[in-house]
Amino acid sequence: MGDPRAVGAQIRMRLPSLTPLEGKVAADILARKDIDEAMPLRAIAEGSGVSEAMVVKVAKKLGFAGFREFRQGLVDYYRSDTAALHSEISAEDTAGEIVQKVFRTAMQALEETFAILDLQAFERAADYLHRARQRDFYGLGGSAQIARDVSHKFLRIGLRSSVFDDAHMMMMSASLLGPEDVAVAFSHSGSTSAVIDAVELARRNGARTIAVTNYPDSPVARIVDVVLCSTAQNSPLLGENATARIAQLNLLDALFVAIAQRDRKAADLNLGRTMRAVQSKRRL
Q: Which residues on neighbouring strands pair with residue 186, listed in sequence order?
């Protein structure tokens, strides 16, 4: 693991792919701030109430070569400035403390999402969306709001897209897509059945598929051509989704710029046209 900021994200993002016991062990270990280079495997295993073999198994399922690499990764992560950004909100917090904690948690999500970003996947997504004849976005709830934000930005530079947040409409859309089109699934959990069903149909019809999700091993991530991952630390009050949306919005802003750069002259021309079109709606 080259970037220490990515360690915590790597562990959290793979928790859903673990068994309940493995997930508990991984979460217990991630929550420990007292781990150092000298802490033996036995001590960590005893702290989680499992065997040493179980700790090694969990380390490998999380993408580490073994316990020593897992331990060193955690040590490096907790020494990084990024790990220190997150603090839980308590009932006694003042308004100033609440604002600081919420902002710092969002900053952590941005730092960690940047650290785990697959630039090759990012480039492929930009190419697919730039060349597409039709761009259809699928999402429910908060994910649909992210899809709408992206669609709005695309329209500003002349790229047409459609947003679907109804299961039946998603399937109708997917049935009409073909090899020149792109379907983008927005799903924080990556397990929203309505979104997965639509993406599966779009892919069967030959369309390129992209997923924007928090979990690289999720059901939707396993069936698409390109996965763009965000990451965020869970919070009892804020939840994980709220913070992840901030990271996803920034990730998709970057994708928007990358697509615009592929034909900057056309993007600038269309941006000027769309800005002038709404200028008359502003009261001075």
A: 139, 212
| CATH number reported for the structural domain that contains residue 45 in this entry | 1.10.10.10
The count of domains in the chain is: 2
pLDDT confidence tier of residue 92, bands split at 50, 70 and 90: confident
**Residues 166, 40 within the same domain:** no
Q: What is the pLDDT of residue 11?
A: 85
The string of DSSP letters for 220-274 reads: TTTTSSEEEE------TTTTTHHHHHHHHHHHHHHHHHHHHHTTHHHHHHHHHHH
Nearest-angstrom CA–CA distance, 238 and 170: 29
Describe the crossing of helices 52-61 and 20-31 by its angle, rounded to 10 degrees.
90
SS (H, E, C) 90-134: CCCCCHHHHHHHHHHHHHHHHHHHHHHCCHHHHHHHHHHHHHCCC
Helix, strand or coil for residue 22?
helix
Joined tokens for residue 17? 């792919």
- Residues 6 or more apart in contact with residue 157 via CB below 8 angstroms: 256, 259, 260, 266, 267, 270, 271, 274
pLDDT per residue as tens digits for the range 15-49: 888 898 998 888 888 888 788 888 889 988 988 88
Domain that residue 14 falls in: 1-80
Q: E strand or H helix at 8, and its extent?
A: helix 5-14
In this structure, the answer to whether residues 144 and 27 fall within a common structural domain is no
How far is it, in rounded angstroms, from Cα 80 to Cα 100? Answer: 19
* pTM assigned to the model: 0.86
Residue 198: give its domain's CATH number: 3.40.50.10490
